[in-house]
Amino acid sequence: MLYLWLKAVHVGAVLVFLGGLFVLTITAVALSRLNSPEQMKERGVLVDTVLRWDRRVTSPALGLVWIVGIALVWMGGWMTSPWLLVKLCFAVFLSAVHGMTSGMLRRRMGAESVRPMPRALRVFPAAIVASAIAIAVLVVVKPF
Question: What is the rounded distance in angstroms from the CA atom of residue 52 to the CA atom of residue 56?
Answer without folding.
Answer: 6
